Amino acid sequence: MELPSQYQNLLDEYCQSLGIDALIPDQYGAVYLQFNEKLSVGIQLDLQHEGILYFSYYEIPEGVDCTHIYKSALEGNFLWLQTGEATLSLDGVKGELALMKRLPFGSVQDLSTFRSSLYEFVNIAHEWQQKIAQSEPRATDRKTEKSACPDPAVPHSWERV
After folding, report:
1. Coil, strand or helix: which one is 132?
2. Per-residue confidence in pLDDT tens, the chain, 161 aa
3. Most CB atoms closer than 10 Å: which of 16, 41, 115, 121?
4. Inter-residue contact 67 to 158 (CB < 8 Å)
5. Model pTM?
6. What is the pLDDT of residue 138?
7. Degrees to nearest 5, angle at CA 97 with 20 and 153
8. Measured CA distances, 23 to 14, 35, 63, 89, 120 (Å)
9. CA separation for the pair 100, 53 (Å, rounded)
10. What b/e string do you get for 100-122 counting C-beta neighbours within 10 Å, with b at 16 or more?
């Protein structure tokens, strides 16, 4: 059986176990699950690496010190101790923090291991969601009252802090 068929079968089996309608991947092979009001986790087939990619994006709230968030993310990536072997990175286009984890498909091809790895990722994603929500207020430059954070809508808008 080809990898896309195995992936769809795994998604179907997962949906049946939850008693929900089937998840249909988009044109990129991704499906999205909403776990709470703000936590969405994507699952995507990664044909290039013959794996599955879990991902979650975090919008940096208005008024929050993004430099503190970025520092926490870098510290969290150190030996993946605070990320459960996932990686935090910055989506330069959206200006959002992203948590991503790639797994070989062979390691998650049965429902039990898939569910376990997904819930482990969801728990870590939730922890980072809480860390971001509890971040320090943003410092501003008193002369210009501009934020020290980049404007996500303007590429390369980093300012010196």
Report:
1. helix
2. 687 889 999 999 999 999 998 898 999 889 999 998 889 999 999 989 999 999 999 988 888 888 888 888 999 899 888 888 999 998 878 778 999 999 999 999 899 999 999 999 999 999 999 988 888 776 665 444 455 555 554 444 444 43
3. 121
4. no
5. 0.81
6. 67
7. 110
8. 9, 15, 36, 27, 20
9. 7
10. bbebebeebeeeeebbebbeebb
What is the CB neighbour count within 10 angstroms for residue 73?
22
Structure tokens at 157: 């808008």
Given this model, what pLDDT does residue 63 score? Answer: 81
Structure tokens of 39? 């936590």
Instruction: With H, G, I as helix, E, B as strand and everything else as coil, classify residue 67.
Output: helix
Torsion of CA 62, 66, 72, 76, to 10 degrees: 80
SS3 149: coil
Q: How far apart are CA 83 and CA 16, in angstroms?
A: 29
